[in-house]
Amino acid sequence: MLFPKKVKHRKWFTKRKHPLKEAAHPETRGIKLSFGSFGLKASEYGRVTSNQIEAARKAAMHRAGKTGKVWIRVFPDHPFTQKPAEVKMGKGKGDPVGFIAEVKPGRIIFEIDGVESADATEAMRKAGTKLPIKTRFVSRA
Prior knowledge:
Elements: H1 19-23, E1 38-42, E2 46-49, H2 50-64, E3 69-72, E4 78-82, E5 95-103, E6 108-113, H3 117-129, E7 135-139
Antiparallel strand pairs: 1-6, 1-7, 2-5, 3-6, 4-5
Helix pairs in contact: 2-3
């Protein structure tokens, strides 16, 4: 699981962002393939937890085999909190549970190289099913 060594504040603000409004402002950084020949690109805004990133990485690596190399292009550095079940309203903010990465439309999430096009497509499809956002397969032109 990915998590930062240190964060400035233990609990951050939630950043209540409307997904439809965020779709109007696509990502400007990390939108092109830099390392591999194929990639998985986000089509919508969402918050991806470190567990989801790890599950997608494992699925892609399993399909890529020994010859394939997978790069993770997002990092979960935003802590999120959660209150226990059946707790009344109020009484402060919940305890930190994990870390998320805010992914905007157009962001490359994973890259893969060293495999055939069909294998890369299947690996990225399987990785995309583990994520809570819509994704699409991209390749170098």
